[in-house]
Specification:
Rossmann fold; seven-stranded mixed beta sheet
Length: about 220
């Protein structure tokens, strides 16, 4: 563990996150319907349009909102911490005929061998991972040489006043939804040892599309 949080605190925070997302799974798609229409759906398409050839891992699959954006004819391995989210993702996969291998797994401690995937893709994941740098280190570990990590994330605003407001509201938002609104995910990507290839700013800078690779692996992905 890279963050200095002890094992007991880490396990407690992870179990709390699991329970929160089990609780919100029933209403999650309803709550996300408006943000998806207002731009998140478009940004999901943009993110997944960057995925090239090779093995794909989706982290934090949730209820499967990305299934419709998967590359045609490709099988995707997808993980989530919440059994209830995965149950709903499985139902969606059946409805949408998504070719996906769903697994119950914590991104902070994945059960995959080193260098297993060419692409590690996540949408609005590291706002809720208890130890985001730990999860990003794991993403780096399972990434093949020449592979890419692709993330769509909401982050703390760089505007001083708005950033402070997000800090003040964050404890309330976390209790309600499980998501932190003031994460510095771009900086966390770098802290995990990844090198940023591209960082796109959207919606006034509070939503980012981040493409990253392992140091020394900045050659084009397959």
């Amino acid at each position: 563990m890279t963050s200095g949080v002890n094992a007991r605190e880490h396990d407690t925070a992870t179990e709390t996150a699991r329970r929160r997302y089990d609780r919100v799974a029933r209403t999650y798609d309803i709550e996300q319907a408006l943000p998806e229409r207002l731009g998140f759906g478009r940004l999901r398409r943009r993110l997944w349009s960057r995925v090239g050839a090779g093995e794909i891992l989706e982290i934090g699959v949730g209820t499967g909102l990305n299934f419709r954006h998967y590359p045609p004819g490709r099988r995707v391995t997808a993980i989530d911490l919440s059994p209830e989210m995965l149950r709903r993702a499985d139902a969606r996969a059946r409805r949408e005929h998504a070719d996906v291998d769903l697994r119950l797994m914590d991104v902070q401690k994945m059960g995959f061998a080193d260098q297993s995937f060419d692409w590690v893709v996540g949408s609005f994941v590291f706002c809720s991972v208890p130890e985001p740098v730990v999860g990003l280190v794991e993403a780096l570990r399972v990434l093949k040489p020449g592979g890419r990590v692709l993330l769509l994330e909401h982050v703390r605003s760089s505007n001083p006043a708005l950033g402070r407001l997000m800090d003040l509201l964050n404890p309330i938002v976390v209790r309600i939804s499980g998501a932190n609104i003031n994460r510095r995910t771009v900086e966390n990507v770098t802290r995990a040892g990844l090198e940023i290839v591209q960082d796109e700013s959207h919606l006034g800078g509070i939503v980012r599309i981040i493409e990253a690779a392992a140091p020394g692996r900045l050659e084009s992905a397959k």
